[in-house]
Design goal:
The complex is a heterodimer. Chain A is of the alpha/beta class. Chain A has 12 helices and 6 strands. In chain B, strand 3, helix 12 and strand 4 (about 375-380) form a beta-alpha-beta unit. The chains are: A alpha/beta, B alpha+beta. The interface of A and B includes residues 107, 149 and 163 of A.
Chain lengths: ~230, ~450
């Protein structure tokens, strides 16, 4: 996320700690992320494991049972989607472990693919350390994290078929959800969206979570058509 | 028309195609010379090699004054005689290259029909006509030579000739198909049928020939002996031939792979390596390093992730234009600009004006936005195009801007109004400024 005025990470650090596993095939990148967010006493993030391919990722995640897995999309051995698939198979459906995709790629098929695979959010590697820490805590709390770009992709995916309401489908986006997505795409933080729409931050979060759910469920209509039109599937 | 021979010759000699065709037809009546010549040219010169071969001969031909002239020659007409000879040699070289190296000698299919679009169907009609003319020509030839009754060899010879023509013509076609990727199941069946009929015709012709020569009685023995020899040769050379074929296939694959790798390497070299070198040299100038890295990242990302079809199909749409504007502002002002674009539409005058206003808004945001990332969101919804530009700077009150400052008032708000759109400048909820630009697309689609 790109929070404009991120709360001082030190403020939330001590009272709670999120256990995180890093999955990325570039050691340099893992080292960098660990250095940036891994100072537990300041950020409240405890890096409890690292993995560099699908095989080791599934193993480490199953062993460490972290709160959040920072998952790269492109990995040797099948990619982030494969990690998601096999982890849920190993640990059972909820497992308490949540996945946040962190990738250098902002290609639509990568983003949509990993979200539909079950990741709770998607941020690109250009994200700042503070924003990443915020995103991790938000994910740990069970919320979804949408980057502006991800919001753009989702809007794009639903836009074409949203106007003519042929049947009242469950996985159609509501007016409010689209409004929230549009504000995210415009670079608003959740707090700002709440202010703008005169709703609470909690409501914003629940809207975003609803969108995420629809995104993961909606394999029947819009996304399939959208993906097919772009030759993504 | 039939094989593109007249066309090719016309190009080489610098004459109108019609003249060449007329010459062929006229020559046909001189003891069938035209048909013979045409056939010889057709078989000797593979289709396509007479077409403009880009980069190989260094001369490209353009259609001018009803004929093909070498482009870049700028009025200097090449000596036709010399060209003719050189052309033959060049052609021969090309033929050899084409045959042995599989050099992609590219011919424009449409060029045969004069380069006009939609010439394919007309071309088919033309081919039909040409075929008819050929038959008539052959009849004329037979009449002229007056041999259809006198010589019993005519029919076997004719059968052999047609058979050979069929098979050769097929080879010709498979070449076409390889170049244009037209290989379909149906076409392949037709190809097999053609070759089969050709072979049959030739066989029948030869047998007829032998029978007429009186060696028909020993035909069985001759065929047996030939088959035995053939089988022997096959057994002996079969493994070698197979091996050669496999080597050839392997080599072709390897070459394609190497080519791909070379292209990627070239791209990386041209872009990434150069940038890295520049960055090393300028490591003491963080601003410049950032600018270089950002520009390079953008370019590489585009190259890696953007679907090729989208890149080629619509070179100038809203999203495309926005991307270039964003890149320009990023580079010039050294502030990252994050662009999210939902939907796309072709450009028109009003959208162009909107893009200019958006550019101005981005420049403002980059200048006064406190150096943080500028966020741009564009959305096409029905006929409405909205663009939002927001920064995270200190923000300002539009009402307090002095009268003489023209940036926001004229370049953004005024421009949008003049073109029938609206612009709003307002403070963002948690600091910073947001500019909203809304424009209806022009009526016609």
């Amino acid at each position: 996320m790109t929070d404009a005025v991120a709360p001082d990470p030190g403020a939330q650090g001590p009272d709670r700690v999120a256990r995180v596993v890093l999955v990325d095939d570039h050691r340099m990148f893992r080292t960098g992320v660990r250095a940036e967010i891994g100072r537990t006493e300041v950020t409240g993030i405890d890096v409890v494991g690292e993995a560099d391919d699908v095989e080791s990722a599934v193993r480490v995640v199953a062993e460490a049972r972290p709160d959040v897995v920072l998952l790269d999309v492109h990995l040797p051995g099948g990619g982030g989607v494969e990690v998601l698939r096999r982890s849920t198979a190993v640990m059972g459906e909820p497992g308490g472990v949540k996945f946040l995709a962190l990738s250098v790629s902002d290609a639509a098929e990568d983003v949509i693919g990993v979200i539909r695979g079950g990741a709770r959010g998607y941020v690109t590697k250009t994200i700042t350390g503070t924003d990443l820490v915020n995103a991790i805590f938000r994910i740990a709390d069970g919320d979804a994290v949408f980057s502006p770009r991800l919001a753009g992709f989702v809007l794009d995916a639903f836009a074409a078929t949203d106007t003519p309401p042929v049947d009242e489908d469950l996985d159609r986006l509501t007016q409010r959800e689209r409004e929230v997505l549009r504000l995210i795409a415009r670079g608003y933080a959740y707090k700002e969206i709440a202010k703008q729409l005169f709703i609470s931050v909690k409501t914003v979060e629940s809207h975003v979570s609803a969108v995420l759910r629809k995104l993961q469920l909606s394999n029947r209509h819009e996304l399939t058509r959208w993906a097919t039109a772009r030759r993504l599937v | 028309m039939l094989g593109g021979v007249a066309h090719g010759l016309a190009m080489h000699l610098g004459l109108p195609v019609v003249w060449v065709r007329a010459a062929f037809v006229l020559l046909t009546f001189a003891n069938g010379l035209g048909v013979l010549l045409y056939a010889v040219f057709w078989f000797v010169v593979p289709i396509g090699l007479d077409e403009p071969v880009r980069g190989q001969r260094g001369v490209s031909y353009v259609w001018a004054n009803g004929q093909f002239v070498p482009a870049g020659a700028s009025g200097v007409t090449p000596d036709p005689l010399r060209k003719g000879r050189r052309g033959r040699l060049g052609r021969l070289r090309d033929v050899l290259q084409g045959t042995f190296q599989g050099e992609p000698v590219i011919a424009e299919e449409s060029a045969v029909g004069g380069g006009s679009p939609g010439s394919a169907s007309r071309q088919n009609l033309g081919q039909l006509a040409a075929l008819l003319m050929l038959v008539i020509g052959v009849m004329a030839l037979l009449n002229v030579l007056n041999i259809q009754s006198s010589s019993p060899y005519t029919w076997p010879l004719l059968a052999i000739g047609v058979g050979v023509a069929l098979v050769w013509r097929q080879a010709d076609d498979s070449r076409w198909q390889r170049w244009f990727g037209l290989q379909g199941g149906g076409k392949r069946r037709v190809a097999f049928a053609r070759v089969g009929v050709g072979v049959l015709l030739v066989t029948v012709g030869i047998i007829g020939f032998l029978v007429l020569q009186g060696t028909g009685s020993t035909l069985a023995a001759v065929i047996e002996a030939s088959l035995a020899v053939l089988a022997g040769v096959l057994v002996l050379t079969g493994p070698y031939a197979l091996r050669m074929w496999q080597d050839l296939a392997a080599e072709r694959t390897a070459r394609i792979r190497a080519q791909e790798r070379a292209e990627i390497a070239a791209h990386i070299h041209d872009s990434v390596l150069h940038t890295l070198t520049l960055i090393q040299r300028r490591s003491e100038d963080p601003k410049e390093v950032q600018r270089l890295a950002r520009a390079q990242e953008r370019e590489l990302r585009l190259w890696l992730y953007r679907p090729e079809a989208a890149a080629e199909a619509a070179p100038d749409t809203l999203a495309e234009r926005l991307r270039s504007v964003v890149a320009e502002v990023e580079d010039r002002h050294g502030v990252p600009v994050e662009l999210v674009c939902v939907g796309d539409c072709p450009m028109d005058d009003r959208i162009a004006a909107q893009m200019q206003a958006a550019r101005e808004a981005m420049v403002n945001a980059a200048k006064y936005g406190g150096g943080g990332p500028v966020q741009v969101y564009a959305e096409v919804e029905g006929r409405t195009v909205s663009v939002f530009v927001r920064d995270h700077g200190p923000g300002f009150d539009p009402d307090t801007v002095p009268e003489d400052r023209m940036g926001v008032r004229e370049s953004i708000i005024g421009r949008m109004k003049r073109n029938g759109g609206t612009a709003r400048v307002r403070p963002a909820p948690d600091g910073g400024t947001e500019v909203e630009l809304e424009m209806e697309r022009a009526a016609d689609d």
